[in-house]
Amino acid sequence: MKHFLAISAVSLTVLAVNGPATAADSPALEKTNITIAVGGSISQMNKVAYFVALNRKYFEQEGLTVESNAFASGTAALQSIVGGSADVAEGAYEHTLRMQTKGVNMTCLVPYGRYPGNVLVVRKSEADKIKTVADLKGKKIGISAPGSSTQNFVAGLMERAGVSWKDASYISIGTGPSAMAAMKTGGELDALVNLDPAINALVDGGDAVILTDSRTAEGTQQAFGGGYLADCLMVKNDFLKANPNTVQAITNAVVHAMQWLKTASIDDIMKSLPPTYYKSDERLYRMSLENNLSAFQWDGLVTPEAAKNVLDSIAVLDPALKQAKIDFSLTYDNKLIEAALSKYHSPVQQ
After folding, report:
1. 173: buried, middle or exposed (CB in 10 Å: 19+, 13-18, 0-12)?
2. Is the dihedral of CA 272, 144, 185, 292 positive or negative?
3. Model pTM score
4. In what order do the strands lie in the sheet with 169-172?
5. Residue 194: CA atoms inside 13 Å, Cβ hemisphere, count?
6. CA-to-CA distance for 99 and 236, rounded, in angstroms?
7. Fewer CB under 10 Å: which end of the chain, C or N?
8. CB count, 10 Å around CB of 140?
């Protein structure tokens, strides 16, 4: 079931790094009202750049009116765009690879997460028994859903540790509050893969300890052997061809947010958000932003290595993808990002 997320009514005067940006600076848009299907809660830490662009009204600066609809998962959001009820999907880059093998070409407009943000934690009471990834053999691991990025993450780690991912049991527990509850109550789970703020809450509360952390460059290197592409905004290639100016405007808004995030403080970010994002636990939310912010402080340009690492990762659970003939050039377009950077580039280096 989807829930309409109204764009914050907070009035913000926003200046681009190199001066004010207005819709008049850009060519006429083919489509000004767009619907974005979001995979999961909009306030999840893997969506920082997106919710900054939304709440600081960067889409509106580009002449766009956005309806942002949240779905239970990235898969559900993807179904919305494939079915035609949404123009854009927010979710993991890996969807563009999977959909291409099904005959549906999709382009990631701008990947705003360079670290996946997945964290593998172990129940505190089991920490003396599960000290390495290899120790997960025979254990029960909580994941958000079958075939999800959380399962891909731990499966890849196990294979690299010399243990078959099939030697563990996987239990679907969702994200956020449901994931926290599953870890806190009873002994159903030995370990869990999830995102912030759920991970921070579990660790801070003494319920879990971290085994592998992909919120950082070091953890991403350990998990995937190099660069990675996490969440992005994606469109069907037919939509891209029919609406080039609109697609550029969408890309501009997110790149603008990423450039702003390079110098923004945690206080700056918090002031830009509706209180509903953090009112349940502001301290925890601040901590989560601090732990995840570096994933979004970059320009978003895609490297072939990072795209290939995503394919290698999801092929662990779906070996048929290893033989698939993926045309990576159809899954991203750095020219869109480069055009946006020419408008909003920050002097701060990566």
Report:
1. buried
2. negative
3. 0.85
4. 169-172, 140-143, 191-194, 119-123, 208-213
5. 35
6. 10
7. N
8. 16
**Cis before 111? omega within 30:** no
Pairing of strands 106-111, 140-143: unpaired
- pLDDT tens string, the chain, 350 residues long: the values are 444 333 333 333 333 334 444 445 568 999 999 999 998 888 888 899 999 999 999 999 999 999 999 987 788 888 999 999 999 999 999 999 999 999 999 999 999 999 999 999 999 999 999 999 999 999 999 998 888 889 989 999 999 999 999 999 999 998 888 889 999 886 789 999 998 889 999 999 999 999 999 998 988 988 888 999 999 999 999 999 999 999 999 999 999 999 999 999 999 999 999 999 998 899 999 999 999 999 999 999 999 999 999 999 999 999 999 899 999 999 999 999 999 999 997 554 33
Torsion angles phi and psi, residue 142, rounded to 5: -85, 130
